[in-house]
Design goal:
The protein has 417 residues and is an alpha+beta fold. It contains 18 helices and eleven strands. It has one domain: Cytochrome P450 (Cytochrome p450), CATH 1.10.630. Strands 2, 7, 10 and 11 form a four-stranded antiparallel beta sheet that branches. Strands 1-3-6 form a three-stranded antiparallel beta sheet, with no helix packed on it. The protein has a two-stranded antiparallel ribbon with strand order 4-5. A hairpin with a 2-residue loop joins strand 8 and strand 9. Helix 5 packs across helix 18, helix 6 crosses helix 12 and helix 9 crosses helix 11. The longest helix has 26 residues.
Length: 417
Amino acid sequence: MSDPQAIEQLFSLTATQAEVGRANQILQPTLGEHSVLLLDGDRHQRQRHLLMPPFHGERMRAYGDVIRQITNQVTAEWQAGRKIVARSFMQEISLQVIMQTVFGLDQGDRYTNLKQNLQAFLEVTATRLGFVVALFPFLQRDYGAWSPGARFNRMKQGIDDRLYAEIRSRRQTEEGDRTDILHLLMQARDEAGQPMTDGELRDELITLLLAGHETTATALSWALYWIHQLPEVKARLLAELASLGSDADGTAIARLPYLGAICSETLRIYPITMITPPRILTLPMAVMGYEFEPNAMLAACIYQTHRRPDLYPEPLQFKPERFLERSFSPYEYLPFGGGNRRCIGAAFALYEMKLALATILTQFDLQLLEPRPVKTIRRGVTLAPQGGIRMQVVGRRSSFAAPDQLTTVPAPVGRSD
């Protein structure tokens, strides 16, 4: 469905009218039976209630300095003349943000071991074969040490071992002043006063990881592409960033209207996923004259909705000003889904996106190296830019109050990512 009226009906369905967790059961071997994505009814409401607090308000804003610090660390070795593939760096930023904000780890053996396991698993599940193996249980059978199923299971078991070890360690030595999401989830209690079990924590952690890594990295890569593809967009954004001065905090950056419009337009023209998770009807339903029986699967097509000319004139053009000139309803603009299944991490993802972009653009002048328009490809469930967006570092900004002043240094010979 791409008609806003139909999408409004779809997003208004209650837990007794439709199920979403049942439609996502194909993800159970990877995410686990307790993942919020696989639950319906009261169990879904409980998990969602326990997961929500860390991703809103002051809790989320407390991670602003972490996001900016990690972005600076990942880009610290960029020098004039260096060629980069944007997506690889954005993936590193996204993974480190998850490691520090979700797990509270930024160094040491536990950090290194868990990060290596997660990186390998994420890279495999983003490939076509790995994605298919992750979705279909019969492909996860062990047909020998080097079969795709055996490799997938070894990697998943390695991550599970480290996640459970981290949970056990926290339960034994938990410190009350921690701010990472794992700590907050371990402290959360449902209406009956019960905490999450170790199994529930494991499943929600892996869900947060898979839902928040590739998606944010892809969105950041597309944003860098469009900013540097259109000089007028880049100039206007740099002027807005410069107006804040060099000591602006994360909250001030996140409130910048044109930066927000760029992020919104990026997610409009290339939403991370094509459709929302399907709703499986449990009761008959009529939608705009069409009759559907129980067990029919209905989904909103994000991609098609975002390209409707009646909503977005010249839909194939990147125009951030759309989001300055008018507001769109949740049924017209839905990059994070909607209704009672809207992505819990939506606000955090946008916050990370804005701060990472602002940090990069105030530090570096970059040049796009793509000679022709970049096409989209499938990476797991995401729509990613083919080739990852090739760019070159022109120079490091000496003072962002004057964004055209650059400090250049000799370029490393033959260095390319």
